[in-house]
Specification:
- The chain is an all-beta fold.
- The chain has one domain.
- It has no helices and five strands.
- The protein has a five-stranded antiparallel beta sheet, with no helix packed on it.
- It starts with a strand and ends with a strand.
Length: about 70
């Protein structure tokens, strides 16, 4: 199983009232996730942090390729 590091941009959402000028120059956070590659689809990377010897997984992340900026195979 391949170990990968996926760099991606996250979205921001807030449901509170906000002054419009407070949003000027607001940036989305740059993130990275490291995990075992379960599957690469046409539009996403599916990774997990924990795998049993029976191939069950615990804790997974599906990162859309549209948010992905770089992938490193470790």
């Amino acid at each position: 199983m391949k170990l990968i590091k996926v760099f991606w941009n996250d979205a921001i959402a807030d449901s509170c009232w906000t002054c419009e000028e407070d949003l000027i120059d607001k940036r989305t956070p740059n993130c990275f996730s490291i995990g075992y590659l379960i599957q690469e689809t046409l539009d996403a990377y599916i990774i997990t942090s924990t795998i049993t010897d029976g191939h069950d997984v615990m804790g997974y992340t599906i990162i859309p390729k549209g948010l992905t900026t770089k992938v490193e195979y470790l």
